[in-house]
Specification:
Layout: H1 2-16, H2 22-42, H3 52-63, E1 73-74, H4 75-85, H5 91-102, E2 112-115, E3 133-136, H6 138-144, E4 154-156, E5 163-165, H7 174-178, E6 180-183, E7 188-191, H8 196-208, H9 214-217, E8 231-232, H10 235-244, E9 246-252, E10 254-259, E11 269-275, H11 282-294, E12 301-306, E13 315-319, H12 325-335, E14 339-345, E15 347-350, E16 354-357, H13 360-401, H14 403-412, H15 416-427, H16 431-439, H17 447-471, H18 474-492, E17 499-500, E18 518-524, E19 528-532, E20 547-548, E21 558-565, E22 569-574, E23 578-583, E24 597-598, E25 611-617, E26 628-633, E27 637-642, E28 654-655, E29 665-671, E30 676-681, E31 685-690, E32 704-705, E33 715-721, E34 729-734, E35 738-743, E36 749-750, E37 757-758, E38 769-775, E39 780-785, E40 789-794, E41 808-809, E42 819-824
Parallel strand pairs: 8-17, 31-36
Antiparallel strand pairs: 1-3, 2-3, 4-5, 6-7, 8-9, 9-14, 10-11, 11-13, 12-13, 15-16, 18-19, 18-21, 19-24, 20-40, 22-23, 22-25, 23-28, 26-27, 26-29, 27-32, 30-31, 30-33, 31-37, 34-35, 34-38, 35-41, 39-40, 39-42
Helix pairs in contact: 3-4, 8-13, 8-18, 13-16, 13-17, 13-18, 14-15, 15-16
């Protein structure tokens, strides 16, 4: 008997506590946990772009009347309401989500208006919730409009005491507007914020063209639009990210290099940072730069200051004298968060349940489907309410026509219920109509009140017809969505904050940061170089005294002077026949009066070499394989070498020409191989010959005789005359400030190696010929003296004269000063 009882106990134990495999239980529990994190915490719904906690915060504020026009309320009150009614998790989880929704450096379009300390871009946390206050922003209200019109589905809250929306009506595509970040189990999402105007244009285009591609939509959505501004690059990467849903978009800070304290006379330059990449902590960034200086990984930074205030962000990096600020900036881009990749991973919940990686079109398509459903449900709700009201109005209108009979029936009735029953029985009114009749006031019997009922009934019938027409037409519903989006764009749209660099589909370079503009480059014999914009030199009439162009030392004079574009490559040729290369934008910016920076900061030019010629070229305008570098020495030796031989110049330079001991390389120009060459000398001689008379040679060769010179004469300049420039003029400038224009047709073509003909009447008054420029479309002449005086004047003010004339005074020279060089703009 006891044995049977034992067996029964074992059977009961099996039924109560069945054996469970721990592995399968862990798998099932982990999957449940994973789905809970994915659906209820970490990932946003593609329809309204919100995570559950964000949706619950907005709904709680809306439900309690805390809209944009209401009085601010303590954050603790809102957090308590969200926790108690909808979100049974930690209070800091709710408050942190609220804080992010209020930060204008986190969200492109903040959803909460906060008062008090809500954190900062330096990483400071928000104040305790008992100190801060909040309410909804106007744009947040657009997310909840029409929610009371049965436009969305509802679900029970955690304790089934009330209902909460599964998704918001979302009048705007919020997922793209503010983006989102989230880490779930086995997946994550990272969607950047965008410009509202651009997203709405793309949405409208997709509504009209369902077959539009991601590439079509990118004509409107240029890329992310971060609340912190910055610059984004590489359109190919942007295209790939929005097409596949994944990719890296490079962002950079907005920087500028300016003179210290804005003074033109200052010889010091500062790097100014006014915008930093999205989600970069400003304090950490400054500490990182300071650590690089302390660890001596970067040299040349004198001081770092944070001058940010309520008007905006401003970080000042003081650069030491004789250091290239552009090189320091490039180093900081590489080693700090001044340059950072935003890794796009557009994962969102489709239908509120299924996580999926989405393209730009997928997100907008899902939003449009949601919005169509919202508009349909709103129209159905309004139609239902309109029909109910019309039904009541029809009863009232009918009742007013037989009001005496109705009053008689009511008077004979025992009570309200009896009256209700009698009216239904005698006049065939519905229950709703009967209740409305019994509630009708005596004032409704007035003629004017009867007219109001009649007009309201007509309006309701018209509304019913419109709503039924709307529900029967998908096109009309789409037009409603487009109209509402246009209205939102008008109210909240604005300009982009983040600049998108055009071009550079494969990659970006330093040039993407540098605006293309014409600049003037000056170099002194002491090796001080700078670039300035022509606008800093005001235009003067011919014969003026000029302006101070640079504060040079007593023993230093300006030796080289050219105009170029900031994106040009620039070649530096030395008197010893070597060549060095850099980009124009790498030459330090200077003011009109500054001394410049030592060229040895960015070129390994030996101290024994002097730079005697500077030429710049653009790869856009010159076909490297079809162009040549034409060089001429002080003693008239000329040489032509393919430009391709100079495209890869080593940091420490390469040989350009093999010189004789008593000669030096002084002038270099570019040619096409089909041009004419004109050489001028300091004593006023010139020769013009065909370029084909000079055969191409390698870099190590010496060249051939270009012009036979008199004993005391040397070459002063060389110019290339292109086919387009043959009807131009030769602008000759002499060292005492005289100049003239002479038509090129007065210079006959000769054979290479001759003595040439006269190009200017050189006298003690004019001084020797300093430069000669072939001009055609140029409008202005900029001349610089050896003492740093600069003048800018219109070329048409310089007289056209014959070859043997002295010319007119261009610049009024001071005693002991001479023209060092000229440039034509």
């Amino acid at each position: 008997m006891a044995k049977n009882n034992k067996d029964k106990d074992k059977e009961i134990d099996k039924e109560v506590s069945p054996t469970i495999e721990i592995v399968s239980e862990l798998k099932e529990a982990f999957l449940d946990y994973s789905m809970s994190v994915i659906v209820d915490r970490a990932l946003p719904d593609v329809r309204d772009g919100l995570k559950p906690v964000q949706r619950r915060i907005l709904w709680a504020m809306w439900d309690s009347g805390l809209n944009s026009s209401s009085k601010l309320r303590k954050s603790a009150n809102v957090v308590g309401e969200v926790l108690g009614r909808y979100h049974p998790h930690g209070d800091m989880a709710v408050y942190d989500a609220m804080a992010r929704m209020a930060q204008d450096f986190s969200l492109r379009y903040p959803l909460i208006q906060g008062q008090g300390n809500w954190g900062s871009i330096d990483g400071d946390r928000q104040a305790a919730m008992r100190y801060t206050e909040c309410r909804m922003t106007k744009i947040a209200e657009e997310m909840l409009l029409d929610i009371e019109k049965e436009t969305v589905d509802w679900k029970q809250n955690y304790d089934a005491s009330r209902k909460e929306p599964k998704v918001l009506p979302a009048k705007l595509p919020h997922l793209l507007l503010n983006g989102t970040m989230g880490i779930a189990v086995g997946m994550a999402t990272s969607i950047p914020p965008h410009n509202l105007s651009e997203v709405i244009l793309a949405t409208t285009h997709l509504i009209d063209n369902e077959k539009a591609t991601n590439e079509d939509l990118l004509e409107y959505v240029k890329g992310p639009d971060f609340p912190t501004g910055g610059i984004i690059y590489n359109q190919k990467a942007i295209k790939e990210a929005y097409s596949s849903g994944r990719g890296a978009i490079t962002t950079r800070a907005v920087t500028d290099i300016i003179s210290r304290n804005g003074s033109e006379k200052s010889n010091q330059l500062d790097i100014i940072i006014t915008e930093i990449p999205y989600q970069v902590n400003k304090s950490d960034l400054i500490i990182k730069i300071a650590d690089l200086v302390v660890d001596k990984k970067i040299e040349g930074i004198k001081d770092i200051r944070d001058e940010s205030d309520k008007d905006g962000l401003r970080i000042v990096i003081e650069v030491k004298t004789d250091v290239s600020p552009q090189k320091i900036l490039n180093f900081l881009f590489k080693h700090t968060d001044l340059q950072k990749n935003f890794n796009v991973n557009m994962v969102a919940l489709e239908g509120g349940l299924q996580p999926r990686i989405m393209s730009l079109k997928d997100i907008l398509s899902a939003y449009i489907v949601h919005r169509l459903d919202t508009v349909r449900r709103r129209a159905e709700y309004e139609l239902k309410k309109a029909k109910e009201r019309a039904h009541i109005l029809e009863g009232l209108y009918k009742a007013l026509g037989i009001i005496d009979k109705i009053i008689a029936v009511i008077k004979k009735s025992k009570n309200r219920e009896d009256a209700h029953s009698n009216l239904v029985k005698n006049f065939k009114f519905s229950d709703l109509q009967t209740s409305a009749i019994l509630d009708m006031r005596l004032q409704s019997l007035a003629a004017l009140e009867r007219l109001k009922i009649e007009e309201e009934l007509k309006a309701k019938k018209k509304l019913i017809a419109e709503l039924e027409s709307l529900l029967a037409s998908r096109i009309k519903m789409k037009n409603i969505i487009k109209d509402e989006l246009a209205e939102v764009a008008d109210r909240f749209g604005g300009e982009r904050r983040t600049k998108v660099v055009k071009g550079g589909l494969d990659s970006f370079s330093e040039e993407d940061l540098i605006p293309e503009e014409e600049v003037i480059i000056t170099l002194s014999q002491g090796g001080y170089i700078k670039r300035i914009t022509p606008t800093v030199v005001r235009n003067q009439k011919r014969g003026g005294k000029g302006l101070i162009g640079g504060e040079l030392g007593d023993d230093d004079i300006v030796s080289q002077f050219i105009s170029a574009n900031t994106h040009d490559s620039i070649l530096f040729f030395t008197d010893k026949g070597k060549v060095f290369q850099t980009k124009v934008y790498e030459i330090p910016v200077g003011s009109r009066t500054s001394k410049g920076k030592s060229i040895h900061n960015f070129l390994d030019v030996p101290n024994s070499d002097n730079i005697t010629s500077i030429v710049a070229y653009s790869a856009k305008n010159i076909k490297l394989g079809d162009n040549f570098v034409v060089m001429i020495t002080r003693r008239g030796v000329i040489k032509k070498t393919p430009l391709t031989d100079f495209t890869n110049v080593r940091k420490n330079g390469i040989i350009a020409i093999n010189l004789k001991k008593d000669d030096e390389l002084n002038w270099v120009e570019f040619s096409t191989g089909k041009d004419d060459i004109i050489i001028t000398t300091k004593n006023g001689q010139s020769i013009r010959f065909k370029e084909k008379d000079v055969r191409p040679m390698g870099r190590a060769s010496s060249g051939v005789i270009g012009m036979k010179l008199n004993k005391n004469d040397v070459v002063s300049s060389m110019n290339i005359i292109t086919a387009e420039g043959k009807d131009g003029k030769l602008l000759v400038v002499m060292e005492h400030g005289y100049g003239k224009q002479t038509p090129l047709k007065e210079y006959k073509t000769q054979k290479r190696g001759g003595s040439g003909i006269k190009t200017a009447n050189v006298t003690a008054k004019t001084g020797e010929v300093v430069s000669a420029k072939v001009i055609k479309d140029q409008e202005e002449l900029v001349a610089l003296s050896t003492k740093g005086i600069i003048i800018r004047t219109s070329i048409n003010q310089i007289r056209v004269a014959g070859r043997s004339t002295q010319g007119v005074r261009i610049m009024n020279m001071k005693s002991g000063d001479k023209i060092a060089g000229t440039a034509c703009l």
